[in-house]
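SAMPLE LOG
Freezer: B-3
Tube label: C17
Construct: single chain, 161 aa
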Amino acid sequence: MPELEALVMVQSAVGSGSISLDFLYAKCHGRRNGKARSVLDLVIPRADSVLEVLANVYFARAGLRVRRHVVIPGVGEVDFLVEEIIVVETDGSTHFEPKAVKRDQRRNNRSLLGGYLVLRYYYDDVMYTPEAMVAEVQAVLDLWRRGAFTAGTELYVDPFA
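STRUCTURE (predicted):
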């Protein structure tokens, strides 16, 4: 199978608990299994969606420094923190429910108050135009590095404290 299709299949099996990553690695020793091991290296042990898995691959291939499942005070867990400044969320269809939209917009607001920039990407972005997604992240990073934003300072004050 092509690499990304194989990754999606393996991620699904590992994520559902149908098979363990350790078991698969044990079955892929030797020089002939280098491609298989490289796919296993891309599996995220605790991914919330295939969008996260694929976005992670695209960000890594672009040379971006990314942390996954980062907990930000006042915001909660975010999908990605890119270069320690941009929160990137990958949202599937469940994020279109009215309650989810409001929750996500409030999280965006709290992220900004915390000094982070926020970008959200959806199924179509990750699946069909990943190069545009990565280019936008890189463009925002470039703007930030040139001083277009004054983000990076912890400004968050919990209004409920």
